[in-house]
Amino acid sequence: MKTEQLEIFGARLKSARMIAGLSLRELSDKIDNEVTKQSLSKYENGQMQPTSKVLQSLAKALNQKIDFFLLNSFTQFESISYRKKQDLPKKEEEAILERARAYYENYSEIEIILGAKSKFINPVSELIINGYEDVEQAATILRKEWDLGLQPISNLIEMLESVGIKVYVIEHSDKIDGVSIDVENGSPLVIINVADKPLERIRFTILHELAHSFLRFSEAIKSDSKLLEKLCHYFASCLLLPRTKLLEMIGGKKRTYIQIEELKSIKNFFGISIRAIVYRLKQIGIITENYHKRWSIWLNKTYGSKNEPGSYLGVEKSYRFMQLINRALSEELISISKAAALTGVNIQDIKRIEPVG
Amino acid sequence: MAKEDNQILVKDACIIIDLIELDLLKTFLLMHYDVITTSAVVSEITDETQRLYLESCIAKELIKTEDNGTLMDIMNLKEKYRGLSYADATVLEVAIRKSSTLLSADKLLRKAGIKEKSIVHGTLWIIEILHYNRIITCEIASEKIKKLILINKRMSSELCFSTIRKIEKEETAYHLNK
After folding, report:
1. ipTM for this prediction
2. Does the pLDDT value for residue B3 go beyond 60?
3. How far A167 CA lies from chain B's nearest CA (Å)?
4. Do A355 and B153 make contact, defined as CB atoms within 8 angstroms?
5. Distance, CA of A1 to chain centre
6. Contacts for A113 with CB less than 8 Å, ≥ 6 apart
7. Which residues of B touch A355 (CB under 8 A)?
8. What percent of chain A is predicted at pLDDT more than 90?
């Protein structure tokens, strides 16, 4: 291997070790000391190359296909923004990031093979965000540029992937909600934890994380972390539910009384939480600050701080990655074994997938 | 179609799985070819029963594993054929190095084998040769091919049925010449 290849291999080995949550010593023990901790460290630092026999032992111990280690690139994450609890253990955090990196790389590999590399263009990169109105404007621009019209976004994950944003879905403890990552020379990546979460919360978190990644906040906003978080919330709300549509459904005039049934129907149609709708109504001046407060207290008292009435029955799933895999198989651009390596699906199961046409 | 002595055959995971699912692996091994696979291929068989079965064939030396290829040669093949996996590349490397026949149920790997001037065969060829050598009957060959269509959706059913017709024709000719 050349120096650059050795360095990439080293980074990939370290990534696999982090996914497995093992220290160098633990990995050495797991391969029955076939290589020492010191040698493993040298592999990771790109100073030494393993034999193919050692490589197989490492792959087995780390539960990875050898293909994982031999990919000829290593995706660099530029900036990472979390929505997580303080007590998320460092090891778990690293494992989540490395799994997401592997997903991103496999996704990119199939895009390259098919010549279908998605290119993300940020339509609001020039807009400096100074407050709520700018956030609303950013959401309006995005809806226009992404051809969303005023209708509900039925499958947010699929929609984002169609504009070049990759979404990696995980099921983890409630210590983490989501992560937004800027990738060097690549499209943004969002990690979303869907375990035990209602769909509207999942949708909201994805957009909240994206706001951190691609809205250009002014320095003043950046220095006020509380306001920054509120604006990211507001962005999610604005993109999920266009102002025009909200005003049409709730009536354009000031309201002093709103029934829960009205909000439930908006929630069920647009896939956005009642709390977010009420906050938005306050922000655009339909209800007063005082009425918003009363609503929040009533909701918390009646349903608890995390629950609320109404149910959004949509689907949040990415189909694009598997579609690309199936297309590449049909066009005989990848082997069944390669499809298995990229997806983590067994060869037997891939063979049973009926080709289209 | 007659068996050539000392012919070396290298197998990929797809064909091994096909043969295990068709319950033809051990029958095929009765043909006494030198059958080789690689450790990377063995590790691709994730179904526990299939894996144990394959490992028992390896333990009895009915199938040999061969991992003498250099990592560089395998990586070069992987780079040349980006759509292949590491396991595919190990099989191809052995087939090239040993000038042996490549047995694969994967279209892309078979294409790569042909490009590398290897003789390439698939699951249907194995069924044909088992029948030709009267190891399985015409009825069993036909039944196995029909089952193959069900377990391997990527198999061309047109090709499968034309192979059944070919086997039936050969069977008739065999009885007429007897």
Report:
1. 0.92
2. no
3. 24
4. yes
5. 34
6. A328, A333, A334, B82, B83
7. 153-154
8. 77
